[in-house]
Amino acid sequence: MVKVSLDNVKLLVDVDKEPFFKPSSTTVGDILTKDALEFIVLLHRTFNNKRKQLLENRQVVQKKLDSGSYHLDFLRETANIRNDPTWQGPILAPGLINRSTEITGPPLRNMLINALNAPVKTYMTDFEDSASPTWNNMVYGQVNLYDAIRNQINFDTPRKSYKLNGNVADLPTIIVRPRGWHMVEKHLYVDDEPISASIFDFGLYFYHNAKELIRLGKGPYFYLPKMEHHLEAKLWNDIFCVAQDYIGIPRGTIRATVLIETLPAAFQMEEIVYQLRQHSSGLNCGRWDYIFSTIKRLRNDPNHILPNRDQVTMTSPFMDAYVKRLINTCHRRGVHAMGGMAAQIPIKDDPVANEKAMTKVRNDKIRELTNGHDGSWVAHPALAPICNEVFINMGTPNQIYFIPENVVTAANLLETKIPNGEITTEGIVQNLDIGLQYMEAWLRGSGCVPINNLMEDAATAEVSRCQLYQWVKHGVTLKDTGEKVTPELTEKILKEQVEKLSKASPLGDKNKFALAAKYFLPEIRGEKFSEFLTTLLYDEIVTTKATATDLSKL
């Protein structure tokens, strides 16, 4: 075993040694053990410099795009990978053969139980966009998964008892999404810098649960977010190899599905599957983040201005091309091509509106099935039966055998012109309304927020911010009023929305809309552009103490 020093490692929180969710006796101390910390510190020290280099590379690409002399295209240097028909992904892993319906949600204890009890095949437990990364959310998410995998997650609240409907071995397969490469965990410092949040989330879950998951025949499996280059996938693959060697399990035991949710990654899908090779379990269409990334990377090009968000759909030219290329890529390489999120939630007090929403979900899933997806996502257990009814028509656990005949070019992936697309005052209001509501909830520790009968995560707030930045920067003209979008106009409407939302808030003066607006304002005035809202806001939810915990007492 490699000897790992915890010198110059600082844990800036108290470690709770009392169980919080009785009757389970699991505590935070059972997660933040000395040996688990040694494992994640080893991964961080080995791979963090490469992580930072790859993040810098994203900005190099952005500067080239901003110069106007460079356009995204398929990489010449990896043409041999794309043109080689012989390589394939691995055989499908246990518990991942049928993924027709996947449910997603943050690792909150009650939501975790509800998801595992849902009539779905797999469950993506999300430490990323649907979770606000407070210390308690992140570390108790690990506690909850530890307990779920050991059938000891049941708990009672004053209002309700939460219990699994059976043995976890017979319930949906758990797939964990750690935070993206751009995020850090500021409650744990290694060599005077915060640890990579990706390594923190992955490492603790893997270290404590990998062998138990293997015993169950269910993992360990992961979803990998926000990557922009195939070398970022290689970094994950290198981490997987070291992690498996460290605990003594065969390489290739881990499987990872990559969310293709950035525009640059769409040009490197095959390379991403290739880099993960024995660990690949496919690709997924992360639709809202993909729209966010498209605006972000092309924000300074007046030829790529998107209209009101509700007019950007999966049938928009650039979105349709991305879906078709993803399915073709995955099936040619023998791995799953997963569809996107149905974010709708039941509308209990309006049967007519609810039926309309459910019809929209059904039609969306039919489109995905027809295109060739092997399964799709839902955000709420009530939507699972709809997805099941659609995908049972595959007649097989997946349709990897179906390779659609289509050729998607670089120009197709960049075809952002949307026929009859409009930018209106209502589009501004909608972006501000959704963005403010999400940011306010996130600042209070909630990353999975019901807004307008949709379960929203960080991606929708990112779309709001990016669109407003882009519209202001290029001074677009509103279709309904003929008015030019200016910093003054977006600021005026922002103030109106803050006042309206603050008055309606059940929290009264304790709401955080003013704080959300403080961060939102420079972005929507076009004065600055942050890579991610979540990193911009993160310091507001960090709760470190001045004196580090004595690690010798763990």
UniProtKB/TrEMBL annotation:
Keyword Chaperone set for record = no
- Which part of the chain is the Malate synthase N-terminal domain? 17-79
User: What EC number(s) would the UniProt record show?
Assistant: 2.3.3.9
Reaction(s) catalysed by this chain, per the record, are: glyoxylate + acetyl-CoA + H2O = (S)-malate + CoA + H(+)
Gene3D superfamilies hit by this protein: Malate synthase, domain 3 (3.20.20.360), Malate synthase, domain III (1.20.1220.12)
Q: Where is the Malate synthase C-terminal domain?
A: 422-541
Q: Name all Malate synthase TIM barrel domain ranges.
A: 173-415
- GO CC terms for this protein? peroxisomal matrix
Major location, coarse class?
other
In its UniProt record, a GO molecular function of this protein is: malate synthase activity
> What GO biological process terms are annotated to this protein in UniProt?
glyoxylate cycle; tricarboxylic acid cycle
Q: Please tell me whether the keyword Iron-sulfur is annotated for this protein.
A: no
What keywords are assigned to this protein?
A: Glyoxylate bypass, Peroxisome, Transferase, Tricarboxylic acid cycle
Catalytic residues at 177, 457
Which pathway does UniProt place it in? Carbohydrate metabolism; glyoxylate cycle; (S)-malate from isocitrate: step 2/2
As for subcellular location, the record says: Peroxisome matrix
Task: Describe its partners and assembly state.
Answer: Interacts with PEX9.
The family line of this record is: Belongs to the malate synthase family.
Write down what this protein is called: Malate synthase
| Organism per entry | Saccharomyces paradoxus (Yeast)
Q: Which gene encodes it?
A: MLS1
